[in-house]
Predict the 3D structure of the following.
Amino acid sequence: MPTVTIDGCEVKVKRDATILDAARKAGIWIPTLCYHPAVPSEATCRLCMVELDRGEWKQLVTACNYPVRRDIVVYVSSERAKKARRGVMELLLARAPESQELKALAERMGVKGTPYPNVTDSQRNCILCGLCVQVCEQIIGKAAISFAGRGAERTVAAPFRQPSEDCIGCGACAAICPVGTIKVRLHKEQQEVEISPFKSRVKLLVCQECGTPIVSSEVSEQVLRKSQIDWQEFRELLRLCPKCRRSQTSARLRAASVYK
Ligand code: SF4
C-alpha cells in the first residue's frame, strides 16, 4: 500500500485511491464542490488543488482525481496551494453570487468576496461542474440535460432550451447540485413537479386521502418497470402518503383490539 505524506502526516491508502481519499483518512480538510462519490470525478471545479512534491519541483494537482500509485508527498496548507484554491473560489463566486452553499464554503476558506464581475444572467448561479448532467445520464439513465453553447455562453440546459420530454422529475439533479441552483418546485394545484431552471414539468401522484404529493408519476412508472413488484401491490403502496398510511394502519389495529 503506498504512503501519502500530507502536510507531514503519513497515511497508507490502497493503490489508485485519490489524494482526497488519503486526506479524508488523515482527517485533513480539502474543499470540494464537483466531487461526489456517486459519479466518476472529472475535477471540473478545481477547488481541491493541492501541491504535489516531485522532488526537483512542485506541481498543482486536483486531489479528487489524482490516483496514488506510489509513495508521494503532498501539501494542502502550502501558501501556493491555498492561493490557488482561493483564486478558484473567487472565480466561482462571480459565477454563483447568490449561492448560500458557495458563500458558506468561501467563508470557511477565508475568502471574503470576488474581484471579478458577475457572469451573465443566463449562466447565473451555475458553476458548470456538470454533476447534474452526469447523474441524469449515468445514474438515472435519461440524459434529459446537457452542456449547451461555448465559451462564455456555455451553460447546462435541456435540448433546444425547451422543457425536456425525457425528464422524469426525479429531482436527482437538484439533489446533487452543489450550489443549490437546481430546484424542485411543487405546483400543488396542477399536481405537477417542476425542475427549475430547466422548466420541465411532470405529473405527480397525490395521496388519495389528503392530496399530499407523493412522487412523480414518471418515476413511479420507472420503478415499476425495473422492479419485480406486482402492479396492484405497487399502486396500493402509492395510493396513500406515509402519514395517511400510518394513521389507517393504527386505526385498523385499534379496531382489531376493540373487537377481540
Ligand atoms: S429531474 Fe429530470 S433532468 Fe433532473 S436528473 Fe431527473 S430526469 Fe434528469
In short: The chain has eight helices and eleven strands. The first strand starts at residue 3 and ends at 6. The pocket of iron/sulfur cluster is lined by residues 135-136, 140, 142, 144-145, 167-173, 195, 200 (CB under 6 Å). The chain has a mean pLDDT of 91.
